[in-house]
């Protein structure tokens, strides 16, 4: 009998299993995959996410894997250009001392996390497919499944957690309902290239399209392009030519460099963005974490960081339930409530700009930001997860910025639904 069974051992499941095992609980973690293995991902870990890795004692392992540091970020939205990096957080605040961001391959990051869960004392079974949950009196009490063609096995626990992604087997089995959602807007194609030294680029515009690039392991650059879903069939007819076209249209200089020096090292990874949603993420004997319970468009690259953040949150609440500090159902309800509150601003921002075009409000905010060095620092603090969105988008703060810049009065958007001087 386990205290907790975690289904899925990537960036949400492995940290959860590790944290609970470190607290002394008996944990089983299973995944249909074996490691190292790949999975679709933006790779990007914000400073806030790196703060969790540092706190858990894992950041040095990511750095030692050869993942290159990134200390300058380049964003553009048509003619708006914002370049720079966030100031390191003050001493004593998380993520203290982190002066770079990293974009590790998932073959690297997930292996580190799975191994650390095992080292912490969790029992890890790779290549294990969960076929069904075990219920007793409408309460989840365990799982049934098998590893490959092996015999069916049954495991029981006080709590079963689904960390198994957007198509979560656990979420389907318990009938977890979506209570907030919106359709995915775009598709993405990405691969890995040698011969490119672009640093971190996030470039949007010129016909609702984007290219992004950042350095990753093995001296390769990940290059991704995005367009609206209705252009997916057109793009996939010739992905190489289509990617070249997007990069060249957004920045001709980068387009020439890609054509002359870039060499694709691996097959393309295509993906239609899943819908955005919040699912009911707890019930009798079960909980959901990571994309199983909450998913948003990958445009802002917050998936890995949020997986870390809310795995830590869930681990703390589950500890309260298992230790008897409070009833488990109450602890899990607090987990979902706090997750929704803490993620609200990130979700709202992501959905607002992931259509690959800016509303007049965001156009004015980002345009003014690009003209002011101090507010540019605030922007990168927002990106890093270290500067509060309520201050960056605060009405008084924006009004003061517009006044400082003598910004055109008719373009002074301090609220999303109006213009105020």
Automatic annotation (TrEMBL):
Matches recorded under InterPro entries: FAD-bd, FAD/NAD-bd_sf, Geranylgeranyl_reductase
UniProt-listed Pfam families: FAD_binding_3
Coiled coil stretches, renumbered: none
All residue ranges annotated as the FAD-binding domain in the record: 2-324
Protein name, UniProt field: NAD(P)/FAD-dependent oxidoreductase
